[in-house]
Amino acid sequence: MRQTLTIDPAEIARQLTLCDQVRALLDRRPGQKTAFVDTYGCQQNEADSERLRGYLARMGYTFTDSEEGADLVLMNTCAIREHAEHRVFGNVGALLHTKRRHPDQLICLCGCMARQDHVAQRLRQSFPHVDLVFGPQLLWQFPQLLLEKLTTGKRVYATDDVPGAVAEGIPVVRQSTLKAWVSIMYGCNNFCTYCIVPYVRGRERSRRPEDILAEVRQLAQAGYKDITLLGQNVNSYGKDLGLDIDFAWLLEQVNAIPGDFLIRFMTSHPKDAGTRLFDAMARCEKVAPVLHLPFQSGSSRVLRAMNRKYTREGYLALVEELRARIPDIVLTSDVIVGFPGETQEDFEETMSLIETVRYDALFTFIFSPRHGTPAEKLPDPMPKEQKSANFQRLLARQNEISGEKHRAYVGKTYRCLVDGQGGDGKLTARTAGGRLVHLDADPACIGTWQQVRITDSSTWALFGELAE
Ligand code: SAH
Ligand code: SF4
Ligand code: F3S
After folding, report:
1. Cis peptide, bond prior to residue 455, ω within 30 of zero
2. How far is the CA of 200 from the centre of ligand 1 (A)?
3. 111 CA distance to ligand 3 centroid (A)?
4. Per-residue model confidence as pLDDT tens digits over 217-240
């Protein structure tokens, strides 16, 4: 049986008519209506912002890339680490001044921070210039909430803990004409002890396969060349659908859609990734040879305290199986330094794991206590300075490894998607494995696949020219 609630399509249709009502209200005000959508955090939020832009476009807004002078500012926030929250609070504070210069400016805040009670309270008390606050589960109700603000003139707070649902049919305004995000599921059930996501995004819920496949088909027909399937743990896709399908099955279905596009996906939790996934990746020619497989710590003891449900040995065995199946796989990962109770020996195990695996790229984070998570309460005796020294050491070693990995590309030729132009005039391109290439070529190449010969490399990127 399907456990996930799907919002009645008639309800989404109603939201669209409410967009038209907002538009009619705004039309009575002079001038063109502009909106600035400011997105923080992960790709999931990027994808959500594209739907929020879809609603805003339907309301008659055009988009700007600055809060200054915008008639509506929508901050789509992230709560993953303290630093992310500080940035948002700093920027919300600064909006007080832009609003003074533009008193009709509407200030809205949504995303993961909005679902935290202490954040909502602080906004209410200290940031009276914020007009509308709503959590990620209520994204689909944005038109209704904005209309309420406009008609009552009062601040609107929709930050309650409502069970999540899946909403189809919200219009989308995408940022790129080449690369597209496709959410395949929302929420997370894993409750890693450091992580805020399950609290702010709610339980896992999968979109129906026919809805996902219809969206990808449309993207392929529109000429999109790089499609990323998104979920906090894509390998548990489908468990709530009551159908006999899983993520490996979905990959095969997406792969069968006609078109010249690459398929990426993230994120895979090591506890749910395995043979079925690797086989599907190897079989599906459109699936990019890259896997983001966060390990978080090289110490089984710390992994247990993190509630990750795998060991160091289990993780390494998984990587070995993957590399046996797909030898040229590009492997990336996330790691946390300074989890409460992590000892110097535990950290050395993390160092030795990156030495064994040799990731192409690694996203490194210092543990940040999150309000309401179990890890927030754990004793944390390691001094800040030691965590920071460990962090720097890890980063320095990984940079060397990334540099060495990149050096191995030099002299070889790769099929790359040319996706833009950098400030230096060079074009930017990506290998199928997702490595950035700075390319000397005619801007007319943007949007096409090209054979690129790699001529040089650095820690962060490759340099190349068009192969003859
Ligand atoms: N669902 C994804 C990751 C989401 S968050 C997964 O399971 O891999 C992205 C990364 O942020 C995590 O992989 C983790 O490394 C890091 N992270 C999450 N919570 C954190 C915290 N409290 N402190 C520091 N890093 C954190
Ligand atoms: Fe957070 Fe863990 Fe869920 Fe990833 S799997 S979002 S780290 S709780
Ligand atoms: Fe941040 Fe929410 Fe993503 S907390 S990392 S925006 S799921």
Report:
1. no
2. 14
3. 8
4. 999 999 999 999 999 999 999 999
For the whole model, what pTM was predicted?
A: 0.96
Q: Is 294 in the pocket of ligand 1 (CB under 6 A)?
A: yes
User: In whole angstroms, what is the distance from residue 27 CA to residue 15 CA?
Assistant: 18
Residue 1 has pLDDT above 80, yes or no: no
Residue 128 has a pLDDT of: 93
Please name the residue whose Cα sits nearest to atom 1 of ligand 1: 232
Report the pLDDT value the prediction gives residue 30, as an integer from 0 to 100: 79
Q: What share of the chain is helix, strand, coil (3-state, %, to 5)?
A: 40, 20, 40
Single-letter code of the amino acid located at 452: V
Place of tokens 């690459």: 262
Q: What is the DSSP string of 277-290?
A: HHHHHHH-TTB-SE
Strands (E), 95-235: 106-111, 132-134, 156-158, 179-183, 185-186, 205-206, 226-230
Structure tokens belonging to residue 377: 């309460």
Q: What is the DSSP letter of 326?
A: S
Question: Rounded to the nearest 5 degrees, what angle is found at the Cα of 408, between the Cα atoms of 267 and 266?
Answer: 5
Closest by alpha carbon to 20, among 62, 70, 61, 53? 61
pLDDT band at 276 (very low <50, low <70, confident <90, very high): very high
Q: What is the predicted pLDDT for the residue at 2? A: 67
Quickly tell me which residue has 């040799």 as its tokens: 358
Q: CB of 88 closer than 6 A to ligand 3? A: no
How far, in Å, is the centroid of ligand 1 from the Cα of 296? 8
Question: Which ligand sits closest to the CA of 110?
Answer: 3
d(CA 156, CA 364): 37
Which residue's CA is the nearest one to ligand 3's atom 3? 42
What element of type H or E holds 199? Answer: helix 197-201
Three-state DSSP class for residue 191: coil
Q: Tell me: the pLDDT tens digits for 291-340?
A: 999 999 999 999 999 999 999 999 999 999 999 999 999 999 999 999 99
Contact 367, 390 (CB under 8 A): no
Smallest CA separation from ligand 3 atom 7, residue: 197
Residue with tokens 């090209």: 450
Q: Is the CB of 41 under 6 A from ligand 3?
A: yes
Nearest-angstrom CA–CA distance, 21 and 141: 14
